[in-house]
Amino acid sequence: MKYDGRAPQEELATGERSTRNRVARSILDHGPSTVADLAKRVGLTQAAVRRQLDALVSDDVVEAREQRVYGARTRGRPAKVFALTDCGRDAFDQSYDKLAADALRFIAASGGDEAVLAFARARMAAVGEAYRAVVEAAEPEGRTEALAKALSADGYAAMARSAPGPQQGEQLCQHHCPVAHVAEQFPQLCEAETEFFSSLLGTHVQRLATLAHGDGVCTTYVPRSGHAAPPQTTHSASASTAGRNPA
């Protein structure tokens, strides 16, 4: 599970998952905490807090520890406390996003938008070699699925599915993007990724939606051989302009 610096990822924004955010954030702000302490701070019953903690432990966001006692130990078992794991703590840290955005702003100021795009293309070429090996080893009809699995292994939560309606092709859906916050400011990252997918799959692909644009998922249309891409929609973008949506 991936989080941003304010709270866990957008999909946790409502209902039970929103409550889970508050519990995790309270531990971040106050340090290792007992169920009773958390219940008071977030305004829940202890039973409700335990339910959220069970889910957070399952997701490797928090872990249970024996409470550290200073001075003479009282009789009875020490209270159990819950602390963020390294994974959970790193998930709230936005410093890398800020550093990346600052670096890209410097590149843009020095060389303009084309310099940012050149950087994005070079980055994709470097990180994409592993994807290329996986995709090229697959049968042609299974290459989109192979790419989805490779992306998922890198945290993109990707899947391939048949395109809806009369479209003759597939949709590559990425439910998470580790650089979505930076891509909001620099859509060249989305553009370079779309170009890379096109090169990798050997066909013109079309970016229909992006997380950086505020859509719920990054969706790329991959036509079957011999079929053209579908007409552009409001969020569509060709491979040469993908990602240039207003942030």
Task: Please describe what this structure looks like.
The protein has 247 residues and is of the alpha+beta class. Helices cover 47% and strands 13% of the residues. It contains ten helices and six strands. The chain has helices at residues 15-30, 35-42, 46-58, 86-91, 95-111, 113-127, 129-137, 143-153, 180-185, 188-201, and strands at residues 62-66, 80-84, 158-162, 169-174, 206-209, 218-223. The strands form two sheets. It has a four-stranded antiparallel beta sheet, with helices on one face. Helix 1 (15-30) packs across helix 3 (46-58), helix 2 (35-42) crosses helix 3 and helix 6 (113-127) packs across helix 10 (188-201). The longest helix has 17 residues, at 95-111. It is elongated, with a radius of gyration of 22 Å.
Key descriptive features of the protein:
disordered C terminus, two-stranded antiparallel sheet, alpha+beta, 4-stranded antiparallel sheet, 247 residues, 10 helices, elongated, disordered N terminus
Mean of the pLDDT scores?
80
Gyration radius, in Å: 22 Å
In helices, the fraction of residues equals 40-55%
The largest sheet is: 4 strands, antiparallel
Structural class: alpha+beta
Low-confidence stretches: 1-14, 231-247
Widest beta sheet: strand line-up: 3-4-6-5
- What is the global morphology? elongated
Order of helices and strands: HHHEEHHHHHEEHHEE
Number of strands: 6
Strand content range: 5-15%
Task: Give the terminus-to-terminus CA distance.
Answer: 24 Å
Number of helices: 10
